[in-house]
């Protein structure tokens, strides 16, 4: 990886701010984060997890979301069935199904591990339906975003060695030829 930790922090802030602005989230919305520190470090997903990279990226995202009163949901890896780490307040408010797992570096990932330390009362949930999210390292977050999904193309589409994509959503358009949509 040829990126410094300060550059990593700065680039994360730039990318996430861009995505949040394009997604037009408001206080109380949910934002999913898929994250591979291995990919950020220039490796292959799931092969070279880095707690340090996880702490920098999640710490930066946590602050950005917290300042906007947006809920953070961090997707875990396939070893925990892509469960999401969220604040217990959100799980209770949305009546989300809890699962019994605690994130670890190689089962959940460095992003979940870092977020676990940042959150007040973290819990794992099986599924969530968020308005938008970011995918750092091709981790496949689409299953956790509302229908109809709309791709967001961040101005900067790489973080370290990781490919970055994002999604937002819009309400479904229903009705026939006479229906009027906003």
From TrEMBL:
NCBIfam families: TIGR01440 family protein. Signal peptide: none annotated. This is UPF0340 protein IV67_GL000523. SUPFAM superfamilies: TTHA0583/YokD-like. Belongs to the UPF0340 family.
């Amino acid at each position: 990886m040829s990126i410094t930790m300060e550059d990593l922090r700065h680039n994360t802030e730039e990318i996430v701010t861009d995505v949040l602005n394009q997604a037009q989230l408001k206080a109380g919305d949910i934002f999913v984060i898929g994250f591979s520190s291995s990919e950020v470090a220039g490796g292959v997903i799931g092969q070279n997890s880095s707690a340090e990279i996880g702490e920098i990226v999640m710490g930066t995202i946590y602050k950005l979301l917290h300042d906007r009163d947006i809920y953070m949901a961090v997707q875990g890896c396939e070893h925990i069935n892509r469960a999401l780490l969220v604040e217990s307040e959100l799980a209770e408010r949305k009546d989300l199904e809890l699962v019994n797992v605690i994130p670890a570096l190689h089962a959940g990932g460095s992003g979940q591990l870092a977020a676990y330390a940042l959150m007040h009362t973290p819990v794992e949930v099986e599924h969530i339906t968020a308005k938008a999210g970011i995918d750092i390292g091709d981790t496949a977050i689409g299953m956790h975003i509302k229908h109809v999904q709309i791709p967001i193309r961040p101005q900067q589409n790489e973080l370290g060695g990781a490919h970055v994509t994002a999604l937002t959503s819009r309400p479904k358009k229903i009705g026939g030829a006479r229906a009027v949509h906003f």
